[in-house]
């Protein structure tokens, strides 16, 4: 043969091999979870050994089930683990068919079974209840205590343990639509020593005819001894092979066997290339001498001796010696699932409930599945509807940990944590769970069933507020001071409510604290603190009083709020109660926002030029009162900013008639002309109301720069630094309150050109007793003392204005309405429009007409 | 002189014509203060006066503040004792807050008498 002919043959062989290659993605079963039980079924009989066996000449006593004396005669498979994942039987009904073709050794029906048990002399104690029919014994997950010996052997066993079975069909005639080809499949188990298990082939049935006969198959998987893995998940035990020919006899022993274990293999439907949504009808198993060239189509006709030889040997490796455990059915991965709730009630209702939650303050929640070694098996993010699940999990003890940290499979489990403002409140599922150990971890044991309802409850803790009270005078000695309930406060979230507060420690700075009438000192205050019922706002519903230590100090009460789920705020709140040993002083400012401005025209009673800069004075009062709200002093600051006048004008003000000038002491005035007569207390003499003259000649307060009119109104003239004057008015103690002072209605006026009798006041403010009454009504003045109308023209124009904030005045000869563009609308609207006309707002000013400080 | 009067009339006419075309017609503003048509009862004040009445179940300083934090008035308020205070506030101020012992009450400044009760 030529060299290229060899190559062609080799290539053909390779292609053929590829075309018929059997998939081999199955997994060895490494762990079995099974339940033993003590069935009452009992059968005892005496019979010889099986015909043509080495034991045929002996008589034996056969004891089955309860008669065996064993109380573990039923061993039902609950679940098993393969490739690290657990599987359980789905409970899908199956039919079992042993497809037989008579051969030279066996015709008709032969039941060839083995039973685990004990051989004691001529007595066989066989654990499983008596069942002689192979189909019945193999239907479903009945009992791992028995199986079939040399299932596909047609000959070769010297004790007659041969049969005529060519194929085993486990049929689901209704079909199964695969939900998860990766997670569904079937298992096959075999009796044998480790590394000595028998080979076979298997394929998934893709269609059946009306009688349940398979009509098409998936790819074929070929299994060898090595595929069982290196460990038998069920240890060695003795067994006896029993045989029955025909259907009327009893099972008779043909062989006794030494200890052998059980190994197994798991086949996922995806191992056969099947996918989700496909429908399967069960699976078939055949002898390992099904030729390598055989494919899916060749599995259909079990009578075709090309693929199902009638000479399969039960003792030759790689043929028909499989000793299959009587176990059939469809399995599926074991899954676990649960939900995460925003459980605002915690376990107070003994439920894990609430609104679903998937994230905490935008931080995604994860459930980490952790094994007994503390390693992460899987990690999933909680879904938006609060649910989570693991489709396939290992058997045994597992922990589910809810955390903001995502675990990495194979790594150590990350910390179980939430942000401090949140708490685990109701993970009560799992092993050993109690309301006290809500810690974000659920321990479970995975056996035969899916596990659901592994729910976590978390919730946001309440908050506690911190409040500082106004200073109060320390009463000294042993005197209790009530801490207002409103000093405390808090809130809960998402519909939860605050129900209590807990004062967690003894208050700092207190000699004693009295709660609901019970007095505690430092030594008697409970170490665990004191819990007090509170309303929804976190205000205690029992009285709280403190006896402060003497002196200047602050008593600090630390407390936590507690919500309706019983959880405390993550941080304490504080109530700070300051005490002062000195008398309380209260200061008020007028104007409150800063300096106000008084602006005058000085030609009264003749009309002026309405630039309101003949005298411009900023002012502010600081009013000091004691803890009884009685005035102690008034400190007035006046800043003479400008005077666009040739007159030498003075300035003073009058206080309310409610105040007796004799109760005042005034200092700080600056009088340079001999036109003012003062009483001894610094108020002006001859006045029925307290009158204070601040200065009597502006030209002596600010030097004329030599050019322009007056000072600081002509832009071209040199700027002169304004003059600040501080007047201090001390009041007789505890005589007058804020309303008596009525500082907002103080009555400022200018004295015109050193003539004490000529005063100019704000509109409708009264002249002082020293004003010349005869000037009223002269020139443009329309004052009428009879109607209390003063210092206004006939069309209600003033000679002075009082502005609440510091006023940027017009330059010389520029009317205020030209400089302050909203003044006119303010005035004509009666003050309704543009009440802030004087503020520096875009569109409110013509800056070119306003004096600019260089 | 007569020509000057005609010129002024023309200027007034033209000015009025221009204003007529504006989107937001306003009352023509006078050229001088003396032309202002000021309501006879206008008091020329840049403040409004309010009568506040405070009561509380607890002793503590009551504070009247604006929303930007300006403190307009402080006074000691004694439990169970009414405190009346006359306050002049900037006319542009539309609302205030009144605080005592951590409690805050907000009020619109739309009436002259304002009562605040801290219970």
Word description of this protein:
The complex is a heterodimer of chains A (854) and B (119). Chain A is mainly β. Chain A is elongated and about 160 Å long. In chain A, 5% of the residues lie in helices and 37% in strands. Chain A has four domains: 18-332, no CATH class; 334-460, Sandwich (Immunoglobulin-like), CATH 2.60.40; 463-582, Immunoglobulin-like (Sandwich); 588-849, no CATH class. With 119 residues, chain B is of the alpha+beta class. Helices cover 16% and strands 41% of the residues of chain B. In chain B, strand 5 (95-100) and strand 6 (103-108) form a beta hairpin. Chain B is elongated, with a radius of gyration of 24 Å. Chain B starts with a helix and ends with a strand.
Oligomer: heterodimer
Percent helix of chain B, as a range, is 10-25%
Number of contiguous helices of chain A: 6
CATH class of the domain at 47-118 in chain B: Mainly Beta
Q: How many β-strands of chain A, per DSSP?
A: 51
- The residue-averaged pLDDT of chain A reads 92
Task: Name the shape of chain A in a single word.
Answer: elongated
Low-confidence stretches of chain A: 1-24
What would the CATH topology of the domain at 47-118 in chain B be? Immunoglobulin-like
Distance between the termini of chain B: 74 Å
Instruction: Please give the largest β-sheet of chain B.
Output: 4 strands, antiparallel
What would the principal axes of the Cα set say about the shape of chain B? elongated
Question: Can you describe this structure in just a few lines?
Answer:
The complex is a heterodimer of chains A (about 850) and B (about 120). With about 850 residues, chain A is mainly beta. Helix content of chain A is about 5%, strand content about 35%.
